[in-house]
Amino acid sequence: MVRLGFIIGFIALLGALLSGLAAYRVHDQELALDRIALARAIDVHASLVQDRLTERELLARVASGLFRTPSVIKPNMLEPLRSAIYAFKTDFVVAGWVARLKPNELIAAQAAIGGAGFPNPKIRSYDDKPINPVEVTQPIDVLLDLEPRSDETKALPGRSYDQDPVRSAMLTRARIEKRSVASDPVPLLRGNGPVGVIVAAPVIPEGATEPAGFVTFSYELASMMLTNDDMSLFSVALRDPRKEGGELIANDQGVVSTRGVAADGPAPSATRTVSFGGRDWQLGYYAKTNSVRRAEQTAIIVAAIGFAITAMVCGLFGYVAYNNLRLSREIQVRIGFERRLTAVIDELNHRVKNILAVIQSIVTRTLRHGADIDVARELLIGRIHAMSNVVSLLSESQWQGVKLKGLFEARAIPHADRIAVTGPDIAVSARAAQSLSLLFFELASHSDEGLSLVGKHPHITANWTVTGEGPDEVFHFRWEEFNTSEATRRPDSDFGLILLDRVAPEALGGTAKRYFTDASYVYELTAPMETVVDMTERDRTDKISAPVRPAR
């Protein structure tokens, strides 16, 4: 009996020790995994918020760069920009032109606002109190044009922002610093409207030192950074810069409200800082679950099970082994997920930087010194539309390539219905698609003069063939415009010549030539199929998008 009691006591002691060790290990591992998952999800969310804010600030900068101010009192100054700002597919609430009017310009501005059909052309303060132009001695900032024009927004032109503390401070800082500036959170459109922020970009005429006005874009906070997913590990709040100890939060319907933060209240699990409009904004992340309590509950369950099966040594060891294997697999899956997510983010950043570099090159080349602004604006908008179309097609295919015939859609290039397209429907790589989309637009946009010679019949042919087999396959593309000559065809722009002769051939690793025949204009491009299709790029994208599987 003594020996049996000793054995039973030894087994009980051994079981208690093993159960305690297992509970301690499970507690630490569950706690570590929850913290890793929460930190990684917060980093991804903050990165996405920063990317979205950067896109919106870039829109303001591009719009102010394209803006021209022949007369600051015109109430239709946004007219040339409307198609361009919508091409970015941004979610602004209102885009506006705020002119900085001198006292002697106020009467002319009132007449212009009335002539544009706005219901209240009077120059007035932001709370709709009339301003006597005779009493104004300093320049004031007045809203003259906006987009979109609706029954609610048409009543806004004519308001001066000088008496509004939030908007006035924003415009003053933008005027002094001469860069885009964001405002404090403020109700949009009306006093009880949705809470949002406004970013203002100064428009400085060539040769001037002071801005003639500002291009403004307003955005709802809920859609930009505050909407919380029910399945997320955390909720997000924005520190309110208007109130010390205040936070802005959004409910399930996207309505933003302010709440106070008590000194002894729960602190956020983590904070991240994002930049927008020349200032830093702090995001607070609150975990939805108590990871410590969850780890403790898991540890208690493990210990209880261990004590319950102490007498079953084999079962105890089997349980511990199984539990360790399960935890090890979970760790491997999460580590693999983090690596895959890092690779996806790096790949996305690389592609976004490439696209932004291409757009920057297009803007720089198109708006070079001495260019006709009307022609340059038309070409710039068309080239950006071509880039937007190919990015949309690539996004729909998860960057697996684009069908070549899809690049000839009417929304991408002019006169697409008059082009006879023939050739195998091959899928080209993302890099080749971007170059070919710009190439097709350049060819089509410079064939305007020859269009009038042939009526509605197809007068342009675009065909391609693939010759050879295996690694020796060669892609041949031929563009031919009939009934045209050097005298009737619009000359190619400098950017177009660089794209036709150097950029597109080098991007595809091939050669190109262009020439006139007796009755047509011909452009030919030859490149190896391995660069046109680029299976390595497709395999890399497919590998990144593949689901993560646990190691066996």
Automatic annotation (TrEMBL):
<dbReference type="GO" id="GO:0016020">
    <property type="term" value="C:membrane"/>
</dbReference>
<keyword id="KW-0808">Transferase</keyword>
<keyword id="KW-0418">Kinase</keyword>
<dbReference type="Pfam" id="PF07536">
    <property type="entry name" value="HWE_HK"/>
</dbReference>
<dbReference type="GO" id="GO:0005524">
    <property type="term" value="F:ATP binding"/>
</dbReference>
<keyword id="KW-0067">ATP-binding</keyword>
<keyword id="KW-0597">Phosphoprotein</keyword>
<feature type="transmembrane region" description="Helical">
    <location>
        <begin position="299"/>
        <end position="322"/>
    </location>
</feature>
<keyword id="KW-0547">Nucleotide-binding</keyword>
<keyword id="KW-0472">Membrane</keyword>
<dbReference type="InterPro" id="IPR042240">
    <property type="entry name" value="CHASE_sf"/>
</dbReference>
<protein>
    <recommendedName>
        <fullName>histidine kinase</fullName>
        <ecNumber>2.7.13.3</ecNumber>
    </recommendedName>
</protein>
<dbReference type="InterPro" id="IPR011102">
    <property type="entry name" value="Sig_transdc_His_kinase_HWE"/>
</dbReference>
<keyword id="KW-1133">Transmembrane helix</keyword>
<feature type="domain" description="CHASE">
    <location>
        <begin position="133"/>
        <end position="225"/>
    </location>
</feature>
<keyword id="KW-0812">Transmembrane</keyword>
<dbReference type="GO" id="GO:0007165">
    <property type="term" value="P:signal transduction"/>
</dbReference>
<dbReference type="InterPro" id="IPR006189">
    <property type="entry name" value="CHASE_dom"/>
</dbReference>
<dbReference type="GO" id="GO:0004673">
    <property type="term" value="F:protein histidine kinase activity"/>
</dbReference>
<dbReference type="Pfam" id="PF03924">
    <property type="entry name" value="CHASE"/>
</dbReference>
